[in-house]
Each structure stands twice: as structure tokens, then as C-alpha cells.
Amino acid sequence: MHPVTHFLAGWAVGNAAGLGRRDRAIVAVAGAAPDLDGLGWVVEAVTFNSDTPLLWYIDYHHVLGHNIGFCLLYCAAAMWLGKRRMLVGGAAFLSFHLHLLFDLAGSRGADGYQWPIPYLLPFSDAWQITWSHQWRLGAWQNDALAGALVLLTIYLAWRRGYSPVGIVSPAADTKFIDTLRARFGKPGENRKARGLDGKSY
């Protein structure tokens, strides 16, 4: 699936865990971190027509980052960098495994190749996980999941007052939230207007 889909899934996990700004960012990045092993496509693209092409994408994507070893390494770093260490580590672990689950469900190539997940690396290569019903990368299911996560992210931003934009720029995030609330109202305004918050006006 697309790295942005994975990132937004991680963002949802960070929100559900009730984490602060930095910890949410760590957990969100955990959702996309396995795809760091896909950066080899740059080297592969540059060298593909040479006499000795470096097939770093074909050879290492879904290998270096899609395994329990990389997961544990990331979670250890998350706990070291996070403020609420145990919660951040656990949420990062969940976010990472959502990435693997999404890839298992919907990453089949156009040629039918399934990109098996060598989950036990670097300790063992005995278990290569695949799913026979895996849908292709460009399937509608992936688009639907991405769309649902975008809508969830916008809703959480409107409701809670922060979004992934705040990872890069808190000021831009404030403007984004203000725009959302100017368009859709502030959380609870409709309930107050209808007298549903238990108060009389």
C-alpha cells in the first residue's frame, strides 16, 4: 500500500493512545517506517541500464524493513525518544504490525507477485508470510482504505485540534484546524445549539 496510507494508520493509532505531539509523530512514522527498505528503487533506477545494475529494490524491498528485527529496533528507538516510553513503544509496535497486515492484504504486483513478508528476519528466514487472496496494489480496496483514513484524520483534526501537519509546522496546523472549524463549526457547537449538553440557554 501507499506509504501515506500506512502513515495515516499509524497516526490513528497514536491518536487512540492519547499521546502528545512528539509521541504521536513517533507512532505515525512507525506505520510507514518498514517502507524505508523501498528506497533502493532510486539506486536501481539510476543503475538499471548499466552493465552492473544494482537491484536494491527488487532484492531488498519487503526484506530489510518488513520483519520483527527492524520492528524491535524501531520500538527501542521509539521508547528512547518518547516521553511516555512504554505506551509509545507498544503503540509503535502496533502501528508497525498494521503496516505488515495492510501489505499482506493488498500489495500484490501487477504481475501477480505477492511480496512475501520474511517476518522472523534477521533471526530466521524460515517463515515467509503470504495470503492467497491478496489484492493488487492498485485495487479499489486500497483506495477505499486510504480514503477512509484521510476522512478519519480530518475528523480527528477537527475534533481534537491537531493533525499530522503539526509534525512539520505547529503554526500551519493551527491554521488548518481553524479553517476546518470555520467550515464545520467547533466540536460541541451543534449540541449546545440544540440544548443536548445538559445545560439550558
How would you briefly describe this protein structure?
This protein is mostly helical and 201 residues long. 60% of the residues lie in helices and 0% in strands.
Distinctive features:
mainly alpha; 10 helices; 60% helix; single chain; 201 residues
Our count of domains comes out at 1
Major sheet summary line: none
Structural class: mainly alpha
Shape: globular
Distance from N terminus to C terminus (CA atoms, Å) equals: 49 Å
Average pLDDT works out at 91
Helix content: 55-70%
List the total number of helices: 10
From the alpha carbons, calculate the radius of gyration and give it in angstroms: 20 Å
Q: pLDDT below 50 for ≥5 consecutive residues: which ranges?
A: none
SS strand fraction: under 5%
The SSE string, one letter per element, is HHHHHHHHHH
- The total beta strand count reads 0
What is the topology?
Blueprint: H1 3-16, H2 21-32, H3 40-47, H4 56-60, H5 68-81, H6 85-106, H7 140-160, H8 165-168, H9 170-184, H10 189-193
Helix pairs in contact: 1-2, 1-6, 1-7, 2-5, 2-6, 5-6
Describe the structure.
This protein has 201 residues and is mostly helical. The protein has one domain (3-193). Helix content is 60%, strand content 0%. It has ten helices and no strands. Helix 1 (3-16) packs antiparallel against helix 2 (21-32), helix 1 (3-16) packs parallel to helix 7 (140-160) and helix 5 (68-81) runs antiparallel to helix 6. The termini are far apart. The model has no long low-confidence stretch (mean pLDDT 91).
